[in-house]
Input
Amino acid sequence: MDRKSSSSRSGPVSLGFDPVGETPRDHHPEKAGSRVADEKATSVKLARPKAARDTFAFRLKPRDIKDHLDRFVIRQDEAKKVLSVALCDHFQHVRLTREGDPAPHYVKQNVLLLGPTGVGKTHLIRSAAELIGVPFVKADATKFSETGYVGGDVEELIRDLIRRASGDLYRAAQGIVYLDEIDKIAGRDAGGRDVSGRGVQTNLLKLMEDADVPVISPGEAPPPGMPRPQEHTINTRHILFIVSGAFAGLENVVRRRRGPEVAELPAEQLIASASTQDFIEFGFEPEFIGRLPVRVACRGLSADDLFHVMRDSESSLLRQYERAFRAYGIEISFNPDGLRSIARQAAAENTGARGLMTVCERVLRDFKFELPSTRIRELLVDGALVDDPASALARLLKRRPNRAKKGQDARAGGKPS
Output
């Protein structure tokens, strides 16, 4: 199969931060031992502090981040550039602040990603976080409620970040929170949408700016016989927030504002040109959308893009299928014609790269069921197989007898066919 080799880049990923944890400047080591027993009563385990260091070693440049993202995400060049610059600006600010060069009026560059499902938004953020070496948490905005009694409490995002940092508050305090489906909490009174989303926006914007969050949820009770744990908080001023959504219907808001001259423009182009006022009319509070100054749109993926997703990405779905068949001693390969056929069918699903899994499962399901019980050790996925998998499987099984049939023939005293 014609694909880009990843063997030369299979080594460990270079960290943007010094992997050795640092100790907050307001930490008091003499108090650390007194809280160990209390921490056992909580679901968030705090790590023991490590030796303090003088620097906060972020050493990446925007080009470094984009080059890394190019390995895993196809296309979306503008989004990669914008995201790379925003990440570098943010973490360079964190580094300089830790080194004693604060910027008291710095405006945090939280990011808003727009684009349809399956275009690589989550993959972009996760890949960047892995490169930089910071804790990363992803959640859907729809799980949160205004009060926290129904759904989830927005502060749990920060406590999840602490868990991802293995209880190291200092590492968690410079992590990344990624919130998907943010368009679902837009509240529009006139549009009949549930306006409780405005309350969620209010709670989120507090976190996005500068808030002290209790490490232990206020409603969480310790086990019987255990004392209430000592109060700890984590500050969010150095946590970067990235939100995303498909924003279906935003194009109509833009059309109303810009008038007849944009009536024929595609929705994707109109959404990419949305202004702050358009987001406010869509249902976001001015204060909330103002906390998201960096905005960029990801474009939809064509059949040709999906072909390159499979062939060129180091995280290609094909690796998963190669591994699944290899577990049974079967080598599966895909020729370009087969990949083109899969890409065409996936594009018709209108779910971006997620459509690739849908098509591959549909095409290869019976092969995964039948072939492990045969002596067949090679499978070539070409255009004919993708277009008519049932006929291709029948031809393959007809040429190669299965192991069970041979055993039956031998027990009957006959020769296997």
